[in-house]
């Protein structure tokens, strides 16, 4: 007897284009690696049980991998991101598609480069809402704002819910 899940989550597709970009903060311009020309990079927005396919096009001059911090990847280690542990870096001028399975996670997590210093600029939020038909453990917010704080090279993100 084979038991199949009664409901399957949605599938999402994202394209991440990594490039060197001149970026100015506090009157200082630096060449940094960005995702889709933004810093921090785009937020992934999914629900518990969803799957995301993230195609990373590496147009930067460095090899890079992406790690989905706090996301379990059972039977899917090649999409976990630690360079030279579960995958080799994505070479410049090539691409790799990650399959990210949000099986049991809820809340606000983050994704980041897992290659040397690129983790300082290649990162973004992951917003995982409760599965369809389930409720929040608190009153559902009317609005939300993503706030991303940089702490050394390891960012901390928060979601501010507004009622």
From TrEMBL:
Residues 19-131 form the Plastocyanin-like domain. CDD domains: CuRO_1_LCC_plant. Coiled coil: none annotated. Gene3D superfamilies: Cupredoxins - blue copper proteins. It comes from the Eukaryota. GO terms for molecular function: copper ion binding; oxidoreductase activity. InterPro entries: Cu-oxidase-like_N (IPR011707), Cu-oxidase_fam (IPR045087), Cupredoxin (IPR008972), CuRO_1_LCC (IPR034288). SUPFAM superfamilies: Cupredoxins. Belongs to the multicopper oxidase family. PANTHER family: LACCASE, MULTI-COPPER OXIDASE. This is Plastocyanin-like domain-containing protein. It comes from Punica granatum.
